[in-house]
TrEMBL record:
Organism this protein belongs to: Pseudooceanicola nanhaiensis
Residue ranges of domain HTH gntR-type in the record: 18-85
Residue numbers spanned by region Disordered: 1-23
Any GO molecular function: DNA-binding transcription factor activity
The name this protein goes by in its record: GntR family transcriptional regulator
PANTHER family tied to this protein: TRANSCRIPTIONAL REGULATOR, GNTR FAMILY, TRANSCRIPTIONAL REGULATORY PROTEIN
Pfam families hit by this protein: FCD (PF07729), GntR (PF00392)
Highest taxon of source: Bacteria
Biased composition (Polar residues): 1-15
Keywords in alphabetical order: DNA-binding, Transcription, Transcription regulation
């Protein structure tokens, strides 16, 4: 799970490779995540089919799936467009993310195995060593995904999937900002220390603080871009 959106821009090799089936859906999701398809961008079947070197059928199905995930809207005279989120929606999204991530940390403090804790430490160490690289966003998503797995709650996983999809709309990850990345590593350490002590309340509090700082960073980015 990402700090938000989070994002890895598709490589030149991947971007030029012909796609089929589910991979069209994954490509479009990644382009929304990276900002290549920003909020308000039109998704035209013929143009996308030509660019991705596929027929219109998988493109049409991918757009339907994106609509079901809440990433795409159909607007009069425009057709399918990438969804935009207003300020109240962004606040609601982060409020829910804070609740879910905090709950995951509390449950993981009780349920995580020593091996899972060590894996989380290793991922966070990789983040600290990554510097200002494109790997930061991927490692951040990996950290949050592994922590969620360690919580051992399938309903929580399903709820987080909905939040993660909505986060894609916000575009590239705040991890692209070196100052935020360094802060996130320290915030992760605080969560991990509480988890290692099996202190669920402290782990939840540390994760909530982490999410609140992530929210503030995202709002600053959106204001600078004129989006909130």
């Amino acid at each position: 799970m990402e700090e938000t959106q989070p994002a890895d821009t598709p490589s030149t090799e991947t971007a030029s490779r012909p796609l089929h089936g589910d991979s069209v859906h994954e490509r479009l999701r990644e382009e929304i995540r990276s900002g290549a398809l920003p909020p308000g961008a039109r998704l035209t079947e013929t143009e996308l089919a030509a660019r991705l070197a596929v027929s219109r059928t998988p493109v049409r199905e991918a757009i339907r799936r994106l609509e079901a995930e809440g990433l795409v809207d159909h607007q009069p005279r425009l057709g399918a467009v990438v969804r935009s989120m207003d300020y109240p929606e962004i606040m609601e999204l982060y409020e829910m993310r804070t609740v879910l991530e905090g709950t995951a940390a509390r449950l993981a403090a009780r349920a995580a195995s020593p091996m899972e804790l060590e894996e989380l430490r290793a991922i966070n160490a990789d983040m600290a060593a990554a510097g200002a690289s494109a790997a930061l966003a991927r490692l951040n998503r990996q950290f949050h995904a592994r922590l969620l797995d360690a919580a051992r709650n399938r309903f929580l996983v399903r709820s987080m999937a909905s939040v993660e999809a909505a986060l894609l709309i916000l575009g590239p990850s705040a991890m692209e900002r070196p100052d935020r990345a360094a802060e996130a590593v320290e915030e992760h350490r605080a969560v991990l220390e509480a988890m290692a002590a099996r202190d669920g309340a402290a782990a939840e509090a540390a994760m909530r603080a982490h999410m609140e700082r992530a929210q503030l960073t995202r709002l600053r980015i959106l204001r600078q871009e004129g989006g909130a």
